[in-house]
Amino acid sequence: MNQKLSRLWETKNKDDEWWSSFVTSPLAIVANWFVVDVKWISPNLITLMSLLVAFASSILIVMGGQSNFYIAAALINVSHILDCMDGQMAKYRGTSSRFGNYFDKVTDQIQIFIWFSAIAYASYSQVQDINVVFLAFTGVAFYSLRVYVKYVTIFIEVEHDNEYLTKSSSAAASIWKEETLRAGLGNGFKNNALWFLKEQRKFFLFNEAVFVFMLSVALVFDAIVSMLWVFAISQVYFGVVRSWQRGRQVYLNQHGELLKPMAK
Q: Dmax over Cα atoms in the chain, in whole Å?
């Protein structure tokens, strides 16, 4: 039992996003403990289940009503737990694939779109103000820009250096080895407490895992319009900052900086 749990813990992303880091990813490990050896359950099937649960939560948001909002908030987190489970299962089994990675990344983007489309509809139904739809559209557009800037930068680097991905992976492994505080099973209360405190900084990156938390809280406390403002402002900020940052690094040929792990 302990050996299996330790093996599953090793599959946890060493650079998890904020809410994933200490909530959905650990819960995914617990869930995987029960199903990871069930052969007919595949990582791609779990990815599909994550997407279907996300659709179900979006339908409940569109339907409206506080009880539906409560259920939707829970389902959003279930969807994200499943989203963590698929990669963990693939690593545990040693069956990671290019298609699985592609499928996971694409469904992540679809989930962001359908969740905030549903929230835009629900917000408009509440306040009858078209500006809330504009806020959701702005947030999704600039979040997509963040993702686009990251991958187009990687593409440009690969185009000019065939060994870029190998060098980047090596640099990332070295940085995580030096900077990542050991936490989890067998690392004691002090290390885990320090790790937990250190992880809180990631909230202000306002990425996908933070969206899961924000959406859940906003639905539970009926604060979806306020949440859309936070979403839109944070994504405009990071979209502009990341575009300028990566553009400057490429223009000045700062290849050393571009070898470091590239955040969205």
A: 55
* Structural domain includes residue 163: yes
- What's residue 256's pLDDT? 84
Give the 3-state secondary structure of residue 211. helix
Give domain status of residue 263, yes or no.
no
Q: Domain with 163 in it: what CATH number?
A: 1.20.120.1760
How many domains, in total, are found in the chain? 1
Q: Check: CB of residue 231 under 8 Å from CB of residue 211.
A: yes
Please give the share of the chain, as a percent, with pLDDT higher than 70.
95
Structure tokens at 45: 């099937």
Rounded to two decimals, what is the model's pTM? Answer: 0.92
The range of the structural domain enclosing residue 17 comes to 2-258
264: in domain: no
pLDDT digits (tens, 9 = 90+) for 172-194: 777 666 555 566 666 778 888 88
State both tokens at 73.
Answer: 């908030």
CA distance 228 to 259: 34
